[in-house]
Amino acid sequence: MEYSTLVTREVLADHLDDPDWIVFDCRFDLSNPDKGRQDYAGGHAPGARYAHLDHDLSAPKTAHSGRHPLPDPDRFVAWLRDNGVSNHTQVVVYDDMAGAIAARLWWMLKHWLGHTRTAVLDGSWPCWENAGLPVEDIMPSPRRGDFQGRPNPEVLIETEALVEALASGEWKLLDGRLPARFKGEQEPLDPVAGHIPGALNQPFTANLANGHMQNPQTIRHHLDYVLGGHPIGRTICMCGSGVTACHNILAMDYAGLPVARLYVGSWSEWITDPARPVAVAA
User: Fold this and answer.
1) Model-level pTM?
2) Which residue segments constitute the domains of the chain, with CATH numbers given?
3) Does position 282 have pLDDT exceeding 70, yes or no?
4) Active site residue 239
5) How far apart are CA 116 and CA 106, in angstroms?
6) CA–CA separation, 266 vs 282, rounded Å?
7) Per-residue pLDDT reduced to its tens digit, 139-158
8) SS3 call for 90
9) Considering 127, 237, 239, 246, which one is annotated as catalytic?
């Protein structure tokens, strides 16, 4: 069976010794970039490899990019092969934030590179650990895969195209940051607070109940309410740097909805040009 959105802890536990399954630990703290790797070294799911948001899942930040631009696709595909990923591999990703970080790797594999056999662990690391499931602190044995991936530009939108899309009135923009950041009441990561004028707030936490993904019907009803009936297929997702926005796309996918586009640069790229407008409050 192929898993392409979520996988339960029970299913993952049953496949820990399956050579066709690869697990990635994506734990990461935006305010302390070394913490995730340290937590991984202290204990992780058996066989899990570590995926660092800054080093593995992003290219270096530039003066005109957001904080987490996409990596060079050839380099990223090579990294996946070095970690044992092949076209037939079932990939499972997890973090300790209900999928907020792991969804970035999920999106990169499934939607950007077309590796559909990719799923996020529902409930994340706390769900696994609290259930008393196996944990180890050793590095997994090296494996070599032969994954062949090709980037799909249709799942992305760049800043200039975003401006045109919003001006047309045919697209809606969903910002996945928490309400206080969206409203500009606080900004712990970027030098400017606020949001893109016209954006709607869909914090990734709205997809969750007790650390698990909401049921598909609840997700569909909530998004329909937020978007006012606007079609999901004409929707763009963003956040602070193109990471937690992927959780909103994961929720849409899980609910059987069309795939929204991702504005990878997101707020941290938008504000690199002081001429771009900024809105505050809802």
Assistant:
1) 0.97
2) 6-151 (3.40.250.10), 156-270 (3.40.250.10)
3) no
4) yes
5) 9
6) 18
7) 998 899 999 999 999 999 99
8) strand
9) 239
